[in-house]
Structures are given as structure tokens and as C-alpha cells.
Amino acid sequence: MSKDLSNAKSMSIIVTKGTLDWAYPPFILATTAAAMDVKTTMFFTFYGLPLLLKKLDLKVSTLGNPAMKMPMMGMHMSMPNLAAMMPGATAATSVMMKNLTKKKGVASIDELREAAVESEVEMIGCQMTMDLFEYEQKDMIDGIKIGGAATYMENAINSDINLFI
Amino acid sequence: MTQAGDQELDAKGLNCPLPILKAKKALKEVPDGGTLHVLATDPGAVADFEAFCRATGNELVEHDEAGGVYEFLIRKTG
Asked: Is the link from the previous residue into A87 a cis peptide, with omega within 30 of 0?
């Protein structure tokens, strides 16, 4: 059946955060939107840009985030800032989060990103951020586009939904 | 629900948004007018499959729950 795409919706997301927790909302929404026939564009800038690196090394810290409570022994526990700043605390918290997502059947960011590529979500890396933090396109996954604010804006003007995450 | 679909998808144990993403993929293998039968354990899948079908123009023929397992029968009309 040839699909009538004249009514197709579109969405753009500006991705500005690259920690293990904040990587989830943009990838979940982008992949779900694509599954619901929404043409989707993601623009990766500042700390969101490393989410396009071939090798992802995502971490999460409880430091300065008192809202982050992990389920533990039937309760919810947060880590005092003083403990969260100790060497190894970020690595331990990140491992804990990854184990938790696996246990609960939540996709990894690698999986979601793969699904985004597969479902033809357009991904744009911010040129200025690449210059600023010294990243090269050869370190990024294939199939992405590199551009600036105007490239994003052209997408945003034509989108029904524009999100900043 | 005892009906089997033209295509089966076992999404048990998977959490949001994986059941939807896998269903979308599986629907590609279903002929127009054919059905996809999905099993899931994510309680959020009920609202999500209803929304997914409304937005994509596919028909949620029926859904059911038994012992914590949710079943969906989707007809590919979208």
C-alpha cells in the first residue's frame, strides 16, 4: 500500500545533555516518534554531542542531584554529595544504573541509538561543538550530518513539534 | 484471547519503548490487512499500543490480560 504522507507529522529535538540518564529521553522519544511515522530530526550540541561517538562511555552521578534515588533493599536511597564526590563513586553509580536498566528490560542507549539509525531518524552533529571540544567526524557514527544552528532551524521551522532536552 | 496473528511478537520482559519499536518492525513483515499478535508484560503497553494504533491508523482489534501478560492483536491498516 502506498502511504499518503501529506499529513505526516514531524519533530525535532535539540539534545544538549550526554549523561547516562539524560541520554534516555531524546532517544526514547525519537525512536518512538519514528515508529509512529513522525519524521524526526535530532540535533546534538554541547554535552549532547558525544552521544554520536562510535564508542559510547556514558556515566551518571548523584553529585548535586538529590532527586536521584536508587531502589535498594526495598527502599529508595540517595547518596550524600560528600560520598558522591569520592573517587570511583561515579563509576559505581553508572554500573548500578546500567544493571538496573538491564534488569528491568529497559533498552541500552546503544540499542536505542541503533534503532534510531534503523528507523531513519536524521541526526545532526553541531559543527561549533565539534570545534570547541575537538571532536572529529571520523570518531562519530556513520550516516550523521554535520551542521550549525541554521541547519537545525530549517528543520524546526518545518516541524510540528520542537523539543529542547 | 486465543487468536493467533499472521505474525507473532514476544515482547515479554521488555520495557518502554521497546515493545512499540519491536511491534513497528514486526508490522513491516505483516501483509496489509493481516494481523500481528503481541505479548508483553509492561503495564504501560496497554495505553501505548492504543495510542500507537490511533496515531498510525492501525486497528487494535482486541487486547487482553491474564496473569500479568498482556496480549494485543493489531490489524495492519495503517
From this structure: no
Position A103 scores a pLDDT of: 95
Report the complex ipTM: 0.89
Distance from B57 to chain A by nearest Cα, in Å? 9
Indicate the average pLDDT of chain A: 94
- CATH code, domain with B62: 3.30.110.40
Closest B-chain CA to A34:
B21
The whole-number pLDDT of residue B5 equals 83
Name chain B contacts of A106, Cβ cutoff 8 Å: 15-16, 18
A118 vs A15: CA distance, rounded Å: 19
d(CA A29, CA B75): 24
**Is the pLDDT at A1 greater than 60, yes or no?**
no
Tell me, yes or no, whether B60 lies in a domain.
yes
* 3-class state of residue A160 by DSSP: coil
B49 falls within a domain = yes
Question: What domains sit in chain A, N to C, each tagged with a CATH number?
Answer: 10-164 (3.40.1260.10)
**pLDDT tens column, A29-40:** 999 999 999 999
Position A8 scores a pLDDT of: 82
